[in-house]
Amino acid sequence: MALSLQKGQQISLTKTSGSTLSTVRMGVGWDGIRKKGFLGFGAGREAVDLDANALMFDAAGQLVDTVWFRQLQSKDGSVRHSGDNRTGDGDGDDETITIHLSRLARNVTTVILSVNNYSGQSFNRIETAYCRLINEQGEKELARYELAGQGEHNGLIMASLKRDGSDWTFRAIGAACSGRTYHDNLPDMRPHL
Predict the structure, then answer these.
(1) Could you state, in order of their start, the residue ranges of all structural domains in the chain?
(2) Whole-angstrom distance, CA of residue 20 vs CA of residue 73
(3) With contact defined as beta carbons under 8 Å apart, do 163 and 4 qualify?
(4) CB proximity list for 38: less than 8 A, separation 6 or greater
(5) How distant is the alpha carbon of residue 48 from its chain centre?
(6) Secondary structure element (H or E) that encloses residue 59, with its range
(7) CATH number of 3-192
(8) Is the alpha carbon torsion for 67, 80, 164, 155 positive or negative?
(9) How crowded is residue 43: how many other Cβ atoms within 10 Å of its Cβ?
């Protein structure tokens, strides 16, 4: 059973899964914005280009590596992006980032998961959008965070994974930010390290 986390809530991934987690996957799903049209003409969907990001930081808060639509794999191969979905078409997760926790470099203590709307629409206009964290072993959904209707911004710092010895803690952040890529949001991420 998945947990529905609210802003600020956190869970120990090891305790939640009942075993040591080695690989988790963040899935982001959304649909385009429904257009009503006039007298049946022009109805359809306006494409939305959300981008999932994983940013890896060390204990000093220095950015070590990034995975996003322009770099689909971390330098050490422990984090991989499924590829850029520019429309939100299709069912289920539109973009995923797989994180091999046991293979992350030892100096990585925090992974920030974020999303940006490259096409620029605010989250208030997006009707269905979510982020979820899945245990790859058994495909068990560990946590889900709803993103739709979050405000007049076009970026969101969704969650963090923090190393605590051999355990990892997942925290739903839900902090609004603005910008087309994660570069614009680095100052907003600092308080969550």
Answers:
(1) 3-192
(2) 23
(3) no
(4) none
(5) 16
(6) none
(7) 2.60.60.30
(8) positive
(9) 11
